Amino acid sequence: MSDLDKYINDSLEKRKNEKLFRQLFLDEKGVDFITNDYLGFSRLINVETETEKHSPSASRLLGGNTKAIEDLEKHIAQFHGFETALYFNSGYNANTGLFACLLSRHDTYVFDEQVHASVRDGIRQSLAQNFSFRHNDVNDLEEKIKHSKGNVVVAVESVYSMDGDTAPLVKLAETCKKHGASLIVDEAHSIGLFGKEGRGLVHELKLTGDVFAVVYTYGKAMGCHGGAVACKANLRDYLVNFSRPFIYTTAPSNNQVLAVKTAYSLLTSPIREKNKLALRKNILFFVENMNAQSDDAVLHSHINNFMTGSNEKAIAIAQALRNKGFICRPVLSPTVAKGTERIRINLHSYNTLDEIKNLVDAFKSLNG
After folding, report:
1. DSSP state letters, 270-331
2. Of 237, 267, 297, at which residue does a domain stop?
3. What angle do CA 263, 89, 198 make, to 5 degrees?
4. Domain that holds residue 81
5. 3 state DSSP class of 344
6. pLDDT per residue over 202-224, tens digit each?
7. Would you say residue 51 lies in a domain?
8. How far apart are alpha carbons 45 and 358 in whole angstroms?
9. What is the pLDDT at residue 261?
10. Could you tell me the pTM of the whole model?
């Protein structure tokens, strides 16, 4: 065995001993309370392109660019109220590609301590100084900005992926404007669910003119794949020139582009409003019933949590729920802070009230 094989095996064994070993599951049977398909769009999108049958086999800079991609970007920008947009193959690529190249060693990122891992990874790849601020704490943000140098970019989510709570975007925008900082908002978990026709919280709060850029992700409520940075034209040109995940990635397939286009058409159809009302009904029902059963529930929106306080308990409860026919996942430290380990519960428009009631009863039996 080589030294590298030994290192790999030791690392895996350590992760198993710490109850942190990750593995893939296939063809899980049970009620879905884990995916991000909040509005059930993935069940409605089924596309096969009849035109441009051959998908690009190159990066967009080397022959992979198509009119379909550019038309989609124009639609994204117009729909959300921005000058332009740039499409990436995933939300992760959009965040890392944006944050890794935007600032130099003379500048500073300030980010919410609960912001997406993809944002953190992009910031780490940059040479910029960086600070985190306490979750949704505008006063702490202001203090961190005061200790920042150069160009200052503040990174937040509009709806947070772990707790499902919303950011105080109006106050954040005011604070950034006061101190000359630029605000970037990740709308991964709000697009489709908030604002007119699902345009997001930034649009709903009329903040499009007060933010530097917004990142939209299509693998959540939109039910497909990819991500986009909505911004001014100069930032789009900058990303085309300096964002490595964009420059060195094969262009999206025709089917991928058409799927995103179809998802946007669903946002402006009666289906979206119907499914949003069904989701809202499910959220209210779950919150009412779960609050009556457990003090360990943290309930905000379509994303909810049952706090366990340890990795071991989270893993055990998730397995017990799986045995009862519910697909829920534990979220373990260090992904979340130690002591805040949890079972993450995502609600969907297609969950039935009986399924939700049975889940609540399962938690009651496991907690009792």
Report:
1. HHHHHHHHHHHHHHHHHHHHHHHH-TTEEE-SSEEEEE-SSHHHHHHHHHHHHHTTEE-EEE
2. 267
3. 30
4. 60-267
5. strand
6. 999 999 999 999 999 999 999 99
7. no
8. 29
9. 97
10. 0.93
